[in-house]
Design goal:
single chain; 361 residues; mainly beta; Pectate Lyase C-like; 2 domains; 13-stranded parallel sheet; 28 strands; 39% strand
Length: 361
């Protein structure tokens, strides 16, 4: 682990600082105009980030974050903040991004946040910039006022929020301006291909997406939806039932959205909410000495390799990454998932008590 020293990079757009642990993430605040990229999932449920007031938001009014942040499809989980009388509370407290800057490809899960004004999971206050392919799930956000799940407030500068969502998140304010997405959408903002399935509660003005937009009306919502089973009305977006939100036909205009390598941005499957490109269901097989193995009911079994590999994944793939610790077999193993293979030397552990429960068939 880098432990606050980064795993590589020089902070430029072409060679961003590489973040591999919570202490690297904390060091972002030391250079607010650099570029960063996650190379691992980050769990913030460690000291000092899970005690006292918890995580200190990156960037403030007088020292806002102005760089780039690419989550590269990774998760930040267990973000904890408890500062009821402070403003601009989120992973990033205050962002003044240029039009070319971005926060993208990131999932925030199991956040628990209490703040004053401008509170969310991702950004407390956003001035300008681009937010793309970001989601917030399974989280709780409480504020005095001006709260949302992704962004506390979007100011009157050009902002694009695109191909993102929030679900199973409770957003509450003691006073007013509570939004399932953001508390306010400013002038020159574009919100496109977004859906929200949250519980929103506020004593004053509250809405499924946002309670307020700039009075000049120079903003746009395109192909944006909310769960009408959770919230009956929204001024700015289209309500759909839970059943409708789990149908690919509801999102037919989203199917053309692709990454630069032509990977579809959205995973649209019958019977489930839309997911982002990096939320693929991982199915693992083990490959050792050119033989494929799977794990079923704590039994390691060699597979019939006469079958096509794709069929083996569908039938015998397992999705518990912890079981990949079977690479405790000292040595090299190949991890295979979703029909792709990435070679790597996995950890060389001695066989321990836990692994003794696995039988080799």
């Amino acid at each position: 682990m880098a432990n606050g020293k980064f795993a590589g990079g020089d902070g430029s757009k072409d060679n961003p600082f590489l973040i591999e642990d919570a202490f690297d993430l904390d060091k972002v605040r030391d250079n607010l105009s650099a570029s960063y990229k996650l190379i691992r999932d980050i769990d913030l449920n460690i000291k000092p980030f899970n005690e006292g007031e918890g995580w200190k938001p990156i960037g403030g009014v007088n020292n806002s974050f102005q760089g780039d942040f690419d989550g590269d499809g990774h998760i930040i989980k267990n973000l904890y903040i408890s500062v009821k009388n402070e403003d601009y509370i989120a992973l990033f407290g205050y962002c003044s991004l240029r039009q070319s800057n971005f926060i993208k490809n990131l999932k925030i899960k199991d956040a628990d946040i209490i703040g004053g004004n401008y509170v969310s999971a991702l950004v407390g206050m956003l001035n300008q910039g681009n937010i793309e392919c970001v989601c917030v799930i399974d989280s709780n956000i409480k504020s005095l006022k001006n709260s949302g799940s992704l962004i506390g407030q979007i100011n009157n500068q050009p902002v694009t929020l695109k191909n993102s969502y929030s679900s199973n998140t409770k957003v509450e304010s003691e006073q007013d301006d509570t939004g399932g997405l953001s508390s306010f959408i400013g002038n020159s903002s574009t919100i496109q291909n977004v859906y929200v399935c949250n519980i929103v509660k506020g004593k004053g003005c509250s809405e499924a997406i946002t309670p307020r937009c700039d009075s000049e009306g120079n903003y746009g919502f395109f192909n944006c939806y909310y769960n009408i089973d959770n919230f009956s009305t929204s001024k700015y977006c289209t309500g759909k039932t839970t059943e409708q939100l789990k149908k690919p036909s509801t999102f037919k205009d989203w199917q053309s959205e692709k990454l630069e390598d032509q990977t579809p941005i959205w995973i649209l499957k019958e019977g489930q909410y839309p997911k982002l490109w990096f939320e693929v269901e991982k199915h693992f097989l083990l490959n050792q000495s050119r033989h494929l193995y799977s794990i079923k009911n704590t039994i390691l079994s060699q597979l019939d390799e006469s079958e096509p590999t794709e069929e083996l994944f569908k039938k015998d793939g397992f999705d518990d990454e912890q079981l990949l610790n079977l690479d405790k077999f000292d040595g090299q193993v190949e991890m295979k998932y979703e029909g792709k293979c990435c070679d790597g030397e996995l950890f060389s552990y001695k066989i321990g008590d836990w692994i003794k429960n696995i039988k080799i068939k």
